Amino acid sequence: MVLIKFTNCRILQGDKLVNEDFCICTNAGKIVDGQEAFYHSSSLHTDIIDAGGKIISPGLIDCQVNGAFGFNFSTIPDDMNAYVSSLGCIKSSKVLPFHKPTGLRIAKAGAESLGAHCEGPFLNPTKNGAHDIGVLAEAFSFADLEECYGREHFIAKSNTECLPIKMITVSPELGDMMSLIPELARRRIICSIGHSEATYEEARKAMDQGASMVTHLFNAMRPLHHRDPGIIGLLGNNALPHEHFFGLVADGIHLHPMVINLAIISQPDKCILVTDAMHLLGLPDGVYPWTNGGSTYNITKSGAKLLLADSDKIAGR
Question: Annotated catalytic, 132?
């Protein structure tokens, strides 16, 4: 076991940044009480890291974010082919080196992109949510995916190059998507199912084919029914063929707390918190334009709630 002591650092307590040293035990992966660390330090290998006054925080990853502070990742000015253009701008990060011998990853300050999550356009128009139905499509061959996202974004120039696409959300019941999932998995692109009318049987088949995630579970999919559980029924299956995860927008708006509890109790190690944040994150309340596909809508922002103007449809957190 290794005890890591961070000194000369700032950490968040409540809503304030405080200057305070602290220790982490790598065996438990948790912060250790300072008194306890003192008594056990003689029996553990101790690394001391001077943070140089920087903020120490968990390395959180949001695998579903659409934008923030007025910037929309899916809008390219004067360009209708948004996927090809935007993916060409992404420089996906390489895997960060491990800080040996502790096994902790020490990353530079700030945030960076690990690649793109393409939420569409191969989504079911009956479960479009805030997506413009006019831009949704079906895929019948891998060439359809290449035409949409850009063939060059599916080809790695070397074994060390990271593709800009890390995840694609699809409706497995549409077109011939079910047969395309294995090829996405082969290219190490995470296939997530969502915005879908898929039955439980179709959802299970998609997982068997190589899908490994559900996009914002409960939202934009057929509701749970005792004779027709749909995608949500995957919560009750602990024998899927490989690692699988469920995204949850646990903002108190998209899901009722008891629904969140249902997911966590069913699959405690498989739930991933996502923000599904939009470009209005960080902006003051008000009415803002939002270009989606070839159409422009207004979104009303009131605190953490975003509604499509003149409706009660949630546009995202």
Answer: no
